[in-house]
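Extended Data, panel c. Modelled sequence:
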Amino acid sequence: MTKTKTKASKASKPAPKASKPSKETAVVIVDKVAEKAAAITEANKRLDPIAKTINVRLEKAAKLEGDADDHRLAAALEMARAAQVCEAAGIKFKDWAIEHIKNQSFENVRKLLAVGKADEPAKALADLRAGAKKAQAKHREKVKAKVQAANVPKLEAPKPIDVVVGLKPEDQIALVKKVSKDLGMAVVSESDAKALDQFRKTPPAQAKTATVSLPLGYDAVIAGIGDLKQSEKVKLLRWLAEVLGYDVTAKADANEMPAIPDFLDIKKKAA
């Protein structure tokens, strides 16, 4: 019980208040701030002419006045010196460069700074320039390829009808017949197609039927009887007798009946 109370009593005690800085400490802090401000001011005095030199050199390099690489190399060395000044004064070089170096992306500034810090700045600049030229040539080739691809007309497959039209007339007919045959169809001429179409449009009741004119008369009938069978001839004879009122079993008056043709006269045939 005693230990528990002791712990509880310790936990309930308020945390000690932070001690206020003494007058001596406050003076030291103020002196450091003032010292840093003075260092930045002094650094800016040194950086301003460096920035001016860098801008002039890069402007001359852009205009190709004299030797462009010499100007770039000088600018790169000045950037390396500016970076040392910024670091000593506690200034961020990137912020300073963006604000003071004109008409240059920070990426380009960063590359030139690397050249200025290199053990052999001239060689580093030459390598940088060679890499830039290679990248530019590659970019130009890529752009050229895109332009050429855009100007090349796209070839489309010809339509089947265009292929058929391009054939000779006899080849067209042969192709049409073959395709029609494969599909179970027939090719007809334009005139035949019109006749078939007219036939389909004509109602069956109005369709014209062919009439056959048969020769009439005694001689024609006798000639037709010659093609009949013997039984059919007898049947016809009985029918004629019935129509005329004669008995085929009795002898008829020779003056009343026409002469029997030889091929119908049974007696003559038997003789």
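The chain has three domains: 33-151, 160-205, 218-270. This feature is highlighted in the accompanying rendering.
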